[in-house]
Amino acid sequence: QVQLVESGGGLVQSGGSLRLSCAASGRTFSRDPMGWFRQLPGKEREFVAAISWSGNTMYYLESVRGRFTISRDNANNTVFLQMNSLKPEDTAVYYCAAGAANYCTISACYKSSRWYEYWGQGTQVTVSS
DSSP assignment, residue 88? Predict the structure, then answer.
């Protein structure tokens, strides 16, 4: 059974930092894209960042570019999201995603929640002003 388990969320003041981790089990994702999305109640899931299987290509939501960094450790089947200079508008439940439903190399695929096969349960990030 494939599982993605996020950790590292919490409450932080504006300007602070958090590092999210997502550990995968049940299969290896070393040849798959991985990503992070976030969601507020009543809103659609929003793309935050994604990384290619090799780690050579990353994509970011424009509002987090320069503040967030996505990385991965294929040996440990884990993806990370380092979040710096956090703002209250970053408050959301953050979800890890992995595995591609079909072969695609364009950025639109990486940024689409429909492209990913597996999802974690989410971790809450709250940024206070």
Answer: G
CB 26 within 8 A of CB 117: no
**What share of the chain in percent tops pLDDT 70?**
100
C-alpha 79/C-alpha 77 separation (Å) is 7
| Of 91, 1, 11, 103, nearest in space to 52 by CA | 103
Q: How many CB atoms lie within 10 A of CB 107?
A: 12
Give residue-wise pLDDT tens across range 32-71.
Answer: 999 999 999 899 999 999 999 999 999 999 999 999 999 9
Q: How many helices (H) and strands (E) does the chain have?
A: 1, 11
Query: 10 Å Cβ neighbour count for 69?
Result: 17
Closest by CA to 97, choosing from 18, 1, 8, 2, is 2
Contact 5, 122 (CB under 8 A): no
CA atoms within 13 A on the CB side of 5: 7
